Amino acid sequence: MGEIGLVSNARFKTDSQRKLRATKKKYAALNRSMVKAEKSRDKVLVRFRDHVLYLKHNLNARAIGGLDTEVASIGKDVRKLIADMRASIAEAESFIATLE
Questions:
Q1: What is the rounded distance in angstroms from the CA atom of residue 48 to the CA atom of residue 53?
Q2: Could you give the residue ranges of the DSSP H alpha helices within the chain?
Q3: How far apart are CA 8 and CA 24, in angstroms?
């Protein structure tokens, strides 16, 4: 029960409980957003690492010729990652603003 059990004013108690539920709900949404951004970041970084290692081990004219397509594809993934991270940051800032 915690400190809320010490509040005798019913209106204060109800309001505090409501605000706590709302804050927990907002935090859960923020956490989901951050986990999603983290997962997409990991996918991009794993893909990038695979390409770097492949090129490192198989550096030849053919591999170099295929870089343009891969660079464009990875660039697209990075732009998506940046957009996801910005959305997550905006959501975090919005959540923090509700605490101030």
A1: 9
A2: 10-57, 61-65, 67-99
A3: 23
Which residue, 38, 33, 31, 50, is CA-closest to 81?
38
Quote the CA–CA distance of 77 and 98 in Å, as a whole number: 32
Average pLDDT in the chain: 84
Q: 3-state class of 66 per DSSP?
A: coil
pLDDT at 66 over 90: no
pLDDT at 40: 81
Give the 3-state secondary structure of residue 7: coil
* pLDDT level of residue 17 (50, 70, 90 thresholds): very high
Q: Tokens representing 51? A: 């390409």
Question: Are 91 and 30 within 8 A, CB to CB?
Answer: yes
Please give the model's pTM, rounded to 2 decimal places.
0.51
Structure tokens at 80: 């998506």
Cα dihedral across residues 11, 17, 23, 25: positive or negative:
negative
Cβ count within 10 A of residue 84: 19
